[in-house]
Design goal:
Helix content is 25%, strand content 36%. It is α+β, with helices and mostly antiparallel strands. The protein has one domain (2-66). Strands 1-5-4-3-2 form a 5-stranded antiparallel sheet.
Length: 69
Amino acid sequence: MRKNYRILEALNPNKKMKCSRAKLVEKGFDFNYFTSTYTTKAGTIYYFVYDQGYLPLEGEYYALVKRDD
């Protein structure tokens, strides 16, 4: 879990970014570990590791986001 968080934090310094699946996997990211999910009204599911999240996009890309509390 800690490793996933650090990877997301390093790749997403500006709170919003697009990243390829290959880059996440190359860094050692494990998609099986996350702390929570958030489903929007449109049915889109964001996966979060604490306050760092990712959203699967089409074509092996992910939108990386940071939740502001």
